[in-house]
Amino acid sequence: MGTTQLESVPEPKYWHLKTVLTEALDSEFSVGEILPNERDLAARFGVARATLRQALEQLELEGRLQRRRGVGTTVAPPRVGVAVGTEQHAWPGAASDAWQPVDCEQAAPPASVAAALETGADEPVHTVRRSRMSHGQPVATELLYVPAASVPDLTAIDTPSGAARARAVLRELQHLSLESQDRAVELGSARADDAKELDRLPGSPVLVVTTRFFAAGRTAALSVATYRADTCRLTFGDSPDVEIHHDPERRAS
Amino acid sequence: MGTTQLESVPEPKYWHLKTVLTEALDSEFSVGEILPNERDLAARFGVARATLRQALEQLELEGRLQRRRGVGTTVAPPRVGVAVGTEQHAWPGAASDAWQPVDCEQAAPPASVAAALETGADEPVHTVRRSRMSHGQPVATELLYVPAASVPDLTAIDTPSGAARARAVLRELQHLSLESQDRAVELGSARADDAKELDRLPGSPVLVVTTRFFAAGRTAALSVATYRADTCRLTFGDSPDVEIHHDPERRAS
DNA sequence: GAGTGGTCTAGACCACCGC
DNA sequence: CGGTGGTCTAGACCACTCT
To answer: Are residue B100 and residue B170 in the same domain, yes or no?
Structure first.
Protein backbone atom coordinates (compact mmCIF):
# COMPACT_ATOMS: atom_id res chain seq x y z
CA MET A 1 0.00 0.00 0.00
CA GLY A 2 0.87 3.64 0.19
CA THR A 3 4.29 3.87 -1.32
CA THR A 4 3.50 4.14 -5.00
CA GLN A 5 7.13 4.89 -5.67
CA LEU A 6 7.16 6.60 -9.00
CA GLU A 7 10.20 8.43 -7.74
CA SER A 8 11.99 5.22 -6.90
CA VAL A 9 14.96 6.08 -9.09
CA PRO A 10 15.65 9.74 -8.44
CA GLU A 11 18.32 10.82 -10.84
CA PRO A 12 21.27 12.62 -9.30
CA LYS A 13 21.07 16.38 -9.14
CA TYR A 14 24.18 16.91 -11.22
CA TRP A 15 22.76 14.67 -13.93
CA HIS A 16 19.54 16.59 -14.09
CA LEU A 17 21.52 19.81 -14.03
CA LYS A 18 23.54 18.62 -16.97
CA THR A 19 20.38 17.92 -18.94
CA VAL A 20 18.98 21.34 -18.16
CA LEU A 21 22.23 23.06 -19.07
CA THR A 22 22.54 21.07 -22.29
CA GLU A 23 19.12 22.20 -23.39
CA ALA A 24 19.92 25.75 -22.45
CA LEU A 25 23.14 25.60 -24.46
CA ASP A 26 21.27 24.26 -27.45
CA SER A 27 18.59 26.89 -27.40
CA GLU A 28 19.73 30.02 -25.62
CA PHE A 29 23.46 30.32 -26.10
CA SER A 30 25.74 30.76 -29.05
CA VAL A 31 29.33 29.68 -29.52
CA GLY A 32 31.83 31.74 -27.60
CA GLU A 33 29.28 33.24 -25.26
CA ILE A 34 30.37 33.34 -21.64
CA LEU A 35 28.24 31.76 -18.93
CA PRO A 36 27.59 33.24 -15.49
CA ASN A 37 30.27 32.29 -13.00
CA GLU A 38 30.00 29.09 -11.01
CA ARG A 39 28.89 30.70 -7.76
CA ASP A 40 26.04 32.51 -9.43
CA LEU A 41 24.99 29.46 -11.43
CA ALA A 42 25.03 27.27 -8.33
CA ALA A 43 22.90 29.78 -6.45
CA ARG A 44 20.50 30.09 -9.36
CA PHE A 45 19.94 26.33 -9.45
CA GLY A 46 19.91 26.02 -5.68
CA VAL A 47 22.78 23.57 -5.43
CA ALA A 48 26.23 23.59 -3.91
CA ARG A 49 29.02 24.76 -6.11
CA ALA A 50 30.61 21.31 -6.10
CA THR A 51 27.44 19.83 -7.53
CA LEU A 52 27.26 22.40 -10.27
CA ARG A 53 30.91 21.78 -11.07
CA GLN A 54 30.21 18.08 -11.51
CA ALA A 55 27.74 18.95 -14.24
CA LEU A 56 30.09 21.47 -15.87
CA GLU A 57 32.91 18.93 -15.83
CA GLN A 58 30.87 16.48 -17.86
CA LEU A 59 29.78 19.14 -20.30
CA GLU A 60 33.39 20.14 -20.78
CA LEU A 61 34.32 16.49 -21.30
CA GLU A 62 31.68 16.30 -24.00
CA GLY A 63 33.12 19.34 -25.71
CA ARG A 64 30.16 21.59 -25.00
CA LEU A 65 31.93 23.97 -22.64
CA GLN A 66 35.35 25.42 -22.23
CA ARG A 67 36.53 26.55 -18.82
CA ARG A 68 39.63 28.61 -18.14
CA ARG A 69 40.88 29.57 -14.73
CA GLY A 70 40.85 33.27 -14.13
CA VAL A 71 38.69 33.83 -17.19
CA GLY A 72 35.39 32.01 -17.11
CA THR A 73 33.25 29.40 -18.80
CA THR A 74 32.39 29.75 -22.46
CA VAL A 75 30.29 27.82 -24.93
CA ALA A 76 32.63 25.67 -26.99
CA PRO A 77 32.49 25.42 -30.77
CA PRO A 78 31.73 22.00 -32.30
CA ARG A 79 34.66 19.64 -32.16
CA VAL A 80 37.15 19.93 -34.97
CA GLY A 81 37.65 16.89 -37.13
CA VAL A 82 41.32 15.93 -37.07
CA ALA A 83 42.50 13.51 -39.72
CA VAL A 84 44.50 10.67 -38.24
CA GLY A 85 44.19 7.97 -40.84
CA THR A 86 45.07 9.64 -44.09
CA GLU A 87 48.84 9.25 -44.08
CA GLN A 88 48.48 5.54 -44.75
CA HIS A 89 51.73 3.96 -45.77
CA ALA A 90 53.72 7.11 -45.34
CA TRP A 91 56.41 7.90 -42.84
CA PRO A 92 55.94 10.68 -40.34
CA GLY A 93 57.43 13.83 -41.75
CA ALA A 94 56.51 12.90 -45.31
CA ALA A 95 55.18 15.67 -47.51
CA SER A 96 53.88 17.87 -44.76
CA ASP A 97 51.76 15.71 -42.52
CA ALA A 98 50.32 18.53 -40.43
CA TRP A 99 52.94 18.03 -37.73
CA GLN A 100 55.55 20.59 -36.81
CA PRO A 101 58.92 19.42 -35.49
CA VAL A 102 59.75 21.02 -32.17
CA ASP A 103 62.64 19.27 -30.60
CA CYS A 104 64.74 16.13 -30.54
CA GLU A 105 66.91 14.41 -28.03
CA GLN A 106 68.68 11.11 -27.92
CA ALA A 107 67.86 9.36 -24.70
CA ALA A 108 66.72 6.10 -23.21
CA PRO A 109 62.96 5.77 -23.73
CA PRO A 110 60.45 4.68 -21.06
CA ALA A 111 60.36 0.96 -20.48
CA SER A 112 56.98 0.52 -22.18
CA VAL A 113 58.30 2.20 -25.32
CA ALA A 114 61.45 0.10 -25.36
CA ALA A 115 59.29 -3.00 -25.11
CA ALA A 116 57.10 -1.91 -28.03
CA LEU A 117 60.15 -1.14 -30.11
CA GLU A 118 61.51 -4.57 -29.26
CA THR A 119 64.81 -2.95 -28.64
CA GLY A 120 67.26 -3.35 -25.84
CA ALA A 121 67.15 -0.92 -22.95
CA ASP A 122 70.63 0.21 -23.86
CA GLU A 123 70.02 0.93 -27.53
CA PRO A 124 69.87 4.69 -28.14
CA VAL A 125 66.59 6.09 -29.39
CA HIS A 126 65.92 9.44 -31.00
CA THR A 127 62.96 11.11 -29.37
CA VAL A 128 61.36 13.67 -31.64
CA ARG A 129 58.83 16.08 -30.23
CA ARG A 130 56.24 17.44 -32.62
CA SER A 131 53.08 19.46 -32.27
CA ARG A 132 49.99 19.84 -34.33
CA MET A 133 47.79 22.86 -34.79
CA SER A 134 44.27 23.25 -36.06
CA HIS A 135 42.37 26.49 -36.49
CA GLY A 136 45.19 28.32 -34.75
CA GLN A 137 44.95 26.20 -31.63
CA PRO A 138 47.31 23.42 -30.54
CA VAL A 139 45.40 20.15 -30.67
CA ALA A 140 48.06 17.52 -30.20
CA THR A 141 51.59 16.79 -29.13
CA GLU A 142 53.59 13.82 -30.22
CA LEU A 143 56.59 11.88 -29.09
CA LEU A 144 58.12 9.96 -31.96
CA TYR A 145 60.60 7.31 -30.94
CA VAL A 146 63.09 6.31 -33.63
CA PRO A 147 65.71 3.69 -32.78
CA ALA A 148 69.15 4.71 -33.94
CA ALA A 149 69.20 1.54 -36.03
CA SER A 150 66.38 2.95 -38.17
CA VAL A 151 68.43 5.97 -39.20
CA PRO A 152 71.95 4.55 -39.46
CA ASP A 153 73.29 7.37 -41.64
CA LEU A 154 72.55 9.91 -38.95
CA THR A 155 75.58 10.49 -36.79
CA ALA A 156 75.59 12.48 -33.60
CA ILE A 157 78.02 14.90 -35.20
CA ASP A 158 75.97 16.33 -38.03
CA THR A 159 72.76 16.68 -36.06
CA PRO A 160 72.74 20.14 -34.53
CA SER A 161 69.92 20.31 -32.01
CA GLY A 162 66.31 21.21 -31.52
CA ALA A 163 63.98 21.39 -34.47
CA ALA A 164 66.77 21.09 -37.01
CA ARG A 165 67.83 17.80 -35.54
CA ALA A 166 64.22 16.63 -35.48
CA ARG A 167 63.91 17.39 -39.17
CA ALA A 168 67.12 15.50 -39.86
CA VAL A 169 65.77 12.40 -38.16
CA LEU A 170 62.51 12.63 -40.09
CA ARG A 171 64.39 13.09 -43.34
CA GLU A 172 66.51 10.01 -42.75
CA LEU A 173 63.42 8.02 -41.96
CA GLN A 174 62.12 8.49 -45.51
CA HIS A 175 64.96 6.34 -46.79
CA LEU A 176 63.39 3.21 -45.39
CA SER A 177 60.51 1.57 -47.18
CA LEU A 178 57.47 1.44 -44.93
CA GLU A 179 55.84 -1.97 -44.90
CA SER A 180 52.85 -1.47 -42.67
CA GLN A 181 51.56 0.35 -39.67
CA ASP A 182 49.44 -0.20 -36.67
CA ARG A 183 47.27 2.21 -34.75
CA ALA A 184 45.52 2.25 -31.41
CA VAL A 185 43.41 4.86 -29.66
CA GLU A 186 42.76 5.02 -25.96
CA LEU A 187 41.76 7.48 -23.30
CA GLY A 188 44.42 8.99 -21.09
CA SER A 189 45.08 12.03 -18.98
CA ALA A 190 47.49 14.74 -19.95
CA ARG A 191 50.97 14.74 -18.48
CA ALA A 192 52.16 18.04 -17.08
CA ASP A 193 54.26 18.94 -20.11
CA ASP A 194 51.65 17.91 -22.66
CA ALA A 195 49.00 19.79 -20.74
CA LYS A 196 51.07 22.96 -20.86
CA GLU A 197 51.57 22.70 -24.58
CA LEU A 198 47.89 21.96 -25.18
CA ASP A 199 46.85 24.89 -22.97
CA ARG A 200 45.04 22.62 -20.55
CA LEU A 201 45.47 21.62 -16.94
CA PRO A 202 47.42 18.48 -16.06
CA GLY A 203 45.15 15.47 -15.94
CA SER A 204 42.80 16.74 -18.63
CA PRO A 205 41.34 13.94 -20.71
CA VAL A 206 43.25 13.22 -23.89
CA LEU A 207 43.03 10.74 -26.71
CA VAL A 208 46.29 8.86 -27.03
CA VAL A 209 47.02 7.57 -30.52
CA THR A 210 49.83 5.03 -30.63
CA THR A 211 51.19 4.21 -34.07
CA ARG A 212 53.82 1.62 -34.87
CA PHE A 213 55.69 1.81 -38.14
CA PHE A 214 57.14 -1.39 -39.54
CA ALA A 215 60.05 -1.65 -41.94
CA ALA A 216 62.56 -4.36 -42.69
CA GLY A 217 60.69 -6.75 -40.45
CA ARG A 218 61.20 -4.55 -37.43
CA THR A 219 59.38 -1.81 -35.59
CA ALA A 220 61.17 1.10 -37.15
CA ALA A 221 59.43 3.86 -35.26
CA LEU A 222 56.79 4.42 -32.62
CA SER A 223 54.59 7.48 -32.39
CA VAL A 224 52.63 8.43 -29.30
CA ALA A 225 50.32 11.32 -30.10
CA THR A 226 48.25 13.08 -27.47
CA TYR A 227 45.12 14.87 -28.67
CA ARG A 228 42.88 17.16 -26.65
CA ALA A 229 39.80 15.05 -26.04
CA ASP A 230 37.53 18.00 -25.41
CA THR A 231 38.07 19.73 -28.73
CA CYS A 232 39.03 16.94 -31.12
CA ARG A 233 37.19 14.34 -33.11
CA LEU A 234 39.66 11.94 -34.68
CA THR A 235 38.70 11.02 -38.23
CA PHE A 236 39.93 7.92 -39.99
CA GLY A 237 37.90 7.82 -43.15
CA ASP A 238 38.63 8.42 -46.80
CA SER A 239 36.98 11.82 -46.67
CA PRO A 240 38.28 13.60 -43.58
CA ASP A 241 36.68 16.92 -44.39
CA VAL A 242 33.17 15.96 -43.43
CA GLU A 243 31.40 17.39 -40.44
CA ILE A 244 28.88 15.19 -38.73
CA HIS A 245 28.58 16.78 -35.32
CA HIS A 246 27.00 13.89 -33.64
CA ASP A 247 26.08 14.68 -30.06
CA PRO A 248 28.26 12.48 -27.82
CA GLU A 249 25.63 12.72 -25.11
CA ARG A 250 22.44 12.47 -27.02
CA ARG A 251 18.98 12.36 -25.57
CA ALA A 252 16.88 9.20 -25.70
CA SER A 253 15.55 8.55 -29.16
CA MET B 1 64.35 38.16 1.64
CA GLY B 2 63.71 34.92 3.36
CA THR B 3 61.20 33.42 1.01
CA THR B 4 63.45 31.25 -1.12
CA GLN B 5 60.41 29.75 -2.77
CA LEU B 6 61.57 26.44 -4.08
CA GLU B 7 58.01 25.35 -3.45
CA SER B 8 56.63 28.04 -5.72
CA VAL B 9 54.64 25.55 -7.79
CA PRO B 10 53.17 23.15 -5.26
CA GLU B 11 51.48 20.40 -7.17
CA PRO B 12 47.94 19.63 -6.09
CA LYS B 13 47.51 17.00 -3.45
CA TYR B 14 45.36 14.78 -5.61
CA TRP B 15 47.99 14.86 -8.34
CA HIS B 16 50.73 13.82 -5.99
CA LEU B 17 48.42 11.18 -4.56
CA LYS B 18 47.84 9.82 -8.02
CA THR B 19 51.56 9.50 -8.60
CA VAL B 20 52.06 7.70 -5.31
CA LEU B 21 49.17 5.35 -5.97
CA THR B 22 50.37 4.65 -9.50
CA GLU B 23 53.74 3.61 -8.22
CA ALA B 24 52.14 1.48 -5.55
CA LEU B 25 49.97 -0.21 -8.17
CA ASP B 26 53.00 -0.91 -10.32
CA SER B 27 55.04 -2.43 -7.55
CA GLU B 28 52.88 -3.72 -4.75
CA PHE B 29 49.60 -4.81 -6.26
CA SER B 30 48.53 -7.44 -8.72
CA VAL B 31 45.57 -7.48 -11.09
CA GLY B 32 42.26 -8.10 -9.40
CA GLU B 33 43.51 -7.28 -5.93
CA ILE B 34 41.16 -5.13 -3.90
CA LEU B 35 42.32 -1.86 -2.38
CA PRO B 36 41.42 -0.60 1.07
CA ASN B 37 38.18 1.35 1.09
CA GLU B 38 38.16 5.07 0.38
CA ARG B 39 37.72 6.18 3.97
CA ASP B 40 40.70 4.17 5.14
CA LEU B 41 42.85 5.26 2.21
CA ALA B 42 41.99 8.91 2.78
CA ALA B 43 42.87 8.61 6.47
CA ARG B 44 46.10 6.83 5.66
CA PHE B 45 47.20 9.62 3.33
CA GLY B 46 45.89 12.33 5.60
CA VAL B 47 43.51 13.88 3.08
CA ALA B 48 39.77 14.34 2.81
CA ARG B 49 37.86 11.61 1.10
CA ALA B 50 36.91 13.92 -1.76
CA THR B 51 40.57 14.56 -2.48
CA LEU B 52 41.37 10.88 -2.52
CA ARG B 53 38.43 10.28 -4.82
CA GLN B 54 39.77 12.83 -7.27
CA ALA B 55 42.91 10.74 -7.57
CA LEU B 56 41.01 7.48 -7.84
CA GLU B 57 38.78 8.94 -10.54
CA GLN B 58 41.76 9.72 -12.73
CA LEU B 59 43.28 6.31 -12.17
CA GLU B 60 40.00 4.71 -13.18
CA LEU B 61 39.87 6.93 -16.26
CA GLU B 62 43.33 5.69 -17.16
CA GLY B 63 42.21 2.11 -16.82
CA ARG B 64 44.31 1.35 -13.79
CA LEU B 65 41.47 0.87 -11.32
CA GLN B 66 37.96 -0.43 -11.37
CA ARG B 67 35.45 0.81 -8.82
CA ARG B 68 32.08 -0.74 -8.16
CA ARG B 69 29.49 0.59 -5.77
CA GLY B 70 28.76 -1.75 -2.91
CA VAL B 71 31.81 -3.85 -3.73
CA GLY B 72 35.06 -1.93 -3.67
CA THR B 73 38.02 -0.80 -5.71
CA THR B 74 40.13 -3.33 -7.55
CA VAL B 75 43.25 -3.22 -9.67
CA ALA B 76 42.19 -3.34 -13.32
CA PRO B 77 43.77 -5.62 -15.89
CA PRO B 78 45.54 -3.99 -18.85
CA ARG B 79 43.15 -2.59 -21.41
CA VAL B 80 41.88 -5.03 -23.98
CA GLY B 81 42.66 -4.28 -27.59
CA VAL B 82 39.43 -4.07 -29.55
CA ALA B 83 39.69 -4.22 -33.30
CA VAL B 84 37.73 -1.44 -34.96
CA GLY B 85 39.39 -1.10 -38.32
CA THR B 86 39.52 -4.62 -39.67
CA GLU B 87 36.13 -4.87 -41.31
CA GLN B 88 37.26 -2.57 -44.09
CA HIS B 89 34.91 -2.58 -47.01
CA ALA B 90 32.45 -4.89 -45.38
CA TRP B 91 28.95 -4.22 -44.23
CA PRO B 92 28.03 -4.54 -40.59
CA GLY B 93 26.73 -8.02 -39.98
CA ALA B 94 29.01 -9.56 -42.58
CA ALA B 95 30.64 -12.86 -41.69
CA SER B 96 30.48 -12.47 -37.95
CA ASP B 97 31.92 -9.08 -37.14
CA ALA B 98 32.04 -9.54 -33.37
CA TRP B 99 28.70 -7.80 -32.93
CA GLN B 100 25.59 -9.45 -31.63
CA PRO B 101 22.18 -8.23 -32.78
CA VAL B 102 19.94 -7.33 -29.88
CA ASP B 103 16.97 -5.43 -31.09
CA CYS B 104 15.50 -3.39 -33.89
CA GLU B 105 12.84 -0.79 -34.19
CA GLN B 106 11.67 1.45 -36.94
CA ALA B 107 11.51 4.99 -35.69
CA ALA B 108 12.46 8.54 -36.45
CA PRO B 109 16.15 9.01 -35.59
CA PRO B 110 17.60 11.93 -33.63
CA ALA B 111 18.04 15.07 -35.66
CA SER B 112 21.82 14.78 -35.79
CA VAL B 113 21.54 11.27 -37.24
CA ALA B 114 19.00 12.33 -39.81
CA ALA B 115 21.34 15.09 -40.88
CA ALA B 116 24.27 12.70 -41.25
CA LEU B 117 22.12 10.31 -43.26
CA GLU B 118 21.06 13.19 -45.47
CA THR B 119 17.57 11.91 -45.22
CA GLY B 120 14.33 13.68 -44.59
CA ALA B 121 13.01 13.82 -41.07
CA ASP B 122 9.98 11.88 -42.21
CA GLU B 123 11.80 9.02 -43.91
CA PRO B 124 11.63 5.87 -41.79
CA VAL B 125 14.89 4.49 -40.44
CA HIS B 126 15.59 1.06 -39.03
CA THR B 127 17.46 1.35 -35.76
CA VAL B 128 19.38 -1.80 -34.96
CA ARG B 129 20.81 -2.27 -31.51
CA ARG B 130 23.85 -4.47 -31.20
CA SER B 131 26.32 -5.26 -28.46
CA ARG B 132 29.87 -6.44 -28.41
CA MET B 133 31.61 -8.65 -25.89
CA SER B 134 35.25 -9.25 -25.15
CA HIS B 135 36.66 -11.63 -22.61
CA GLY B 136 33.16 -12.26 -21.32
CA GLN B 137 32.54 -8.60 -20.58
CA PRO B 138 30.39 -6.20 -22.58
CA VAL B 139 32.67 -3.58 -24.10
CA ALA B 140 30.45 -1.72 -26.51
CA THR B 141 26.91 -1.01 -27.61
CA GLU B 142 25.94 0.18 -31.03
CA LEU B 143 23.06 1.91 -32.69
CA LEU B 144 23.00 1.20 -36.40
CA TYR B 145 20.76 3.46 -38.43
CA VAL B 146 19.63 2.06 -41.75
CA PRO B 147 17.30 4.16 -43.90
CA ALA B 148 14.43 2.13 -45.29
CA ALA B 149 15.65 3.08 -48.74
CA SER B 150 18.81 1.06 -48.16
CA VAL B 151 16.86 -2.15 -47.62
CA PRO B 152 13.92 -1.80 -50.02
CA ASP B 153 13.10 -5.51 -50.10
CA LEU B 154 12.39 -5.51 -46.40
CA THR B 155 8.72 -4.97 -45.74
CA ALA B 156 7.21 -4.35 -42.35
CA ILE B 157 5.21 -7.54 -42.74
CA ASP B 158 7.92 -10.15 -42.85
CA THR B 159 10.09 -8.64 -40.14
CA PRO B 160 9.04 -10.18 -36.85
CA SER B 161 10.65 -8.25 -34.04
CA GLY B 162 13.66 -8.01 -31.77
CA ALA B 163 16.89 -9.74 -32.69
CA ALA B 164 15.31 -11.61 -35.60
CA ARG B 165 14.29 -8.37 -37.20
CA ALA B 166 17.73 -6.93 -36.58
CA ARG B 167 19.27 -9.87 -38.39
CA ALA B 168 16.89 -9.41 -41.28
CA VAL B 169 17.95 -5.81 -41.72
CA LEU B 170 21.62 -6.77 -41.60
CA ARG B 171 21.04 -9.53 -44.13
CA GLU B 172 19.33 -7.19 -46.56
CA LEU B 173 22.18 -4.74 -46.18
CA GLN B 174 24.61 -7.24 -47.70
CA HIS B 175 22.81 -6.92 -51.05
CA LEU B 176 24.21 -3.45 -51.60
CA SER B 177 27.75 -2.99 -52.76
CA LEU B 178 29.70 -0.97 -50.24
CA GLU B 179 31.68 1.82 -51.85
CA SER B 180 33.53 3.36 -48.97
CA GLN B 181 33.32 4.18 -45.33
CA ASP B 182 34.22 6.87 -42.92
CA ARG B 183 35.15 6.68 -39.28
CA ALA B 184 35.49 9.12 -36.41
CA VAL B 185 36.40 8.66 -32.77
CA GLU B 186 35.58 11.07 -30.00
CA LEU B 187 35.13 11.17 -26.27
CA GLY B 188 31.66 11.11 -24.81
CA SER B 189 29.81 10.16 -21.68
CA ALA B 190 27.56 7.17 -21.42
CA ARG B 191 23.82 7.62 -21.76
CA ALA B 192 21.73 5.92 -19.12
CA ASP B 193 20.80 2.95 -21.29
CA ASP B 194 24.29 2.42 -22.66
CA ALA B 195 25.73 2.69 -19.17
CA LYS B 196 23.41 -0.02 -17.94
CA GLU B 197 24.38 -2.37 -20.73
CA LEU B 198 28.08 -1.66 -20.23
CA ASP B 199 27.78 -2.21 -16.48
CA ARG B 200 28.86 1.33 -15.74
CA LEU B 201 27.28 4.37 -14.17
CA PRO B 202 25.63 6.97 -16.39
CA GLY B 203 28.11 9.61 -17.44
CA SER B 204 31.06 7.25 -17.49
CA PRO B 205 33.60 8.18 -20.15
CA VAL B 206 33.14 6.32 -23.42
CA LEU B 207 34.76 6.33 -26.82
CA VAL B 208 32.17 7.01 -29.48
CA VAL B 209 33.00 5.56 -32.88
CA THR B 210 30.85 6.95 -35.67
CA THR B 211 31.00 5.08 -38.98
CA ARG B 212 29.28 6.07 -42.18
CA PHE B 213 28.75 3.50 -44.90
CA PHE B 214 28.42 4.71 -48.46
CA ALA B 215 26.68 2.89 -51.29
CA ALA B 216 25.06 4.03 -54.49
CA GLY B 217 26.30 7.55 -53.90
CA ARG B 218 24.37 7.84 -50.65
CA THR B 219 24.99 7.30 -46.98
CA ALA B 220 23.46 3.86 -46.77
CA ALA B 221 23.94 3.33 -43.05
CA LEU B 222 25.31 5.05 -39.98
CA SER B 223 26.77 3.28 -37.00
CA VAL B 224 27.29 4.91 -33.62
CA ALA B 225 29.25 2.58 -31.37
CA THR B 226 29.92 3.34 -27.72
CA TYR B 227 32.96 1.69 -26.15
CA ARG B 228 33.92 1.65 -22.49
CA ALA B 229 36.83 4.07 -22.33
CA ASP B 230 38.25 2.64 -19.14
CA THR B 231 38.72 -0.90 -20.37
CA CYS B 232 39.14 -0.56 -24.12
CA ARG B 233 41.97 0.34 -26.45
CA LEU B 234 40.65 0.69 -29.99
CA THR B 235 42.99 -0.83 -32.55
CA PHE B 236 43.00 0.12 -36.21
CA GLY B 237 46.05 -1.58 -37.58
CA ASP B 238 46.64 -4.52 -39.84
CA SER B 239 47.60 -6.73 -36.92
CA PRO B 240 44.99 -6.24 -34.22
CA ASP B 241 46.29 -8.97 -31.97
CA VAL B 242 49.28 -7.08 -30.66
CA GLU B 243 49.52 -5.88 -27.12
CA ILE B 244 51.50 -2.75 -26.51
CA HIS B 245 50.29 -1.66 -23.11
CA HIS B 246 51.51 1.82 -23.33
CA ASP B 247 50.97 3.71 -20.09
CA PRO B 248 48.46 6.48 -20.89
CA GLU B 249 49.83 8.49 -17.98
CA ARG B 250 53.51 7.91 -18.27
CA ARG B 251 56.15 9.48 -16.08
CA ALA B 252 58.57 12.02 -17.50
CA SER B 253 61.18 10.40 -19.72
C1' DG C 1 42.70 44.30 -6.77
C1' DA C 2 38.70 42.08 -8.27
C1' DG C 3 36.87 38.16 -10.23
C1' DT C 4 37.35 33.71 -12.20
C1' DG C 5 37.86 28.64 -11.96
C1' DG C 6 40.75 24.97 -9.21
C1' DT C 7 41.64 22.66 -4.88
C1' DC C 8 40.46 21.05 -0.34
C1' DT C 9 37.92 20.05 3.93
C1' DA C 10 34.77 17.54 7.27
C1' DG C 11 31.05 16.27 7.55
C1' DA C 12 26.19 13.91 5.94
C1' DC C 13 23.11 10.84 3.60
C1' DC C 14 21.98 7.60 -0.24
C1' DA C 15 22.19 3.41 -3.44
C1' DC C 16 23.98 -0.78 -3.97
C1' DC C 17 26.13 -5.39 -2.90
C1' DG C 18 26.95 -9.52 -0.43
C1' DC C 19 26.39 -12.03 3.65
C1' DC D 1 22.50 -6.07 8.08
C1' DG D 2 27.19 -3.82 7.55
C1' DG D 3 30.34 -2.13 4.25
C1' DT D 4 31.24 -0.17 -0.14
C1' DG D 5 31.37 3.60 -3.46
C1' DG D 6 28.22 7.69 -5.16
C1' DT D 7 26.14 12.11 -4.16
C1' DC D 8 25.80 16.47 -1.82
C1' DT D 9 26.68 20.40 1.26
C1' DA D 10 28.69 24.94 2.95
C1' DG D 11 32.17 26.60 3.68
C1' DA D 12 37.61 28.02 2.92
C1' DC D 13 41.73 29.17 0.49
C1' DC D 14 44.67 29.18 -3.71
C1' DA D 15 46.24 30.14 -8.65
C1' DC D 16 45.35 32.55 -12.35
C1' DT D 17 43.93 36.46 -15.64
C1' DC D 18 42.53 40.77 -16.70
C1' DT D 19 42.35 45.63 -15.97
So the answer is: yes
